[in-house]
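Why run this: before we spend reagent on co-expression, it is cheaper to look at a predicted model of the complex and decide which construct boundaries make sense. The entries below are exactly what would go into the expression plan.
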Amino acid sequence: DSGVTQTPKHLITATGQRVTLRCSPRSGDLSVYWYQQSLDQGLQFLIQYYNGEERAKGNILERFSAQQFPDLHSELNLSSLELGDSALYFCASSPGLSGGETQYFGPGTRLLVL
Amino acid sequence: GENVGLHLPTLSVQEGDNSIINCAYSNSASDYFIWYKQESGKGPQFIIDIRSNMDKRQGQRVTVLLNKTVKHLSLQIAATQPGDSAVYFCAENNYGQNFVFGPGTRLSVLP
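The model came back. Tokens follow.
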């Protein structure tokens, strides 16, 4: 158990809908990272937050957004969903600011868009 | 569990044998590397890391080798066990930038 929690574990929705994925980092970790894992793209970095502020952006679509709250949990919002958004979404956390620290991953949310 | 990477390269080894999983990384400036293990239905799990000022690092039953000349990273697992069956990813990092993950290798341990 990495100490990172994610909810829900599974999510099934329809195209055009909006969903919110939730992540709680390890105790004491200030950075949260979101990743998308699909069959053809592997593990892709989406976005990083540090202590409530956006720190780095990767391959995140404009339809997607995230935020980190004062209690350090984070939410990833996916809107206008398309079939191709079906994937596993992972959250990871690390203690500090640098993207070069070891990241500990949560169990993931499996999103299926029908 | 979910089908992570249906078309991943697969390494099959006999239980008790040693496994070697290879990774070619892309950025010669990368200075920090991690191996992750991902079991079906779970998130990637940290196994071992190495910084670019080293060429070898050992953990419990695992060894990571780094060859910067050819941009190659390997993970050696001694006395492979059925519980080692998983997908293994290498990840590279360049001076605090975010990690870039390799495509993964599926390790299958045969009884």
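Chain B has no helices and ten strands. Strands of chain B lie at 10-14, 19-24, 32-38, 45-51, 56-58, 62-67, 72-77, 86-93, 100-101, 105-110. Bring this page to Monday's planning discussion.
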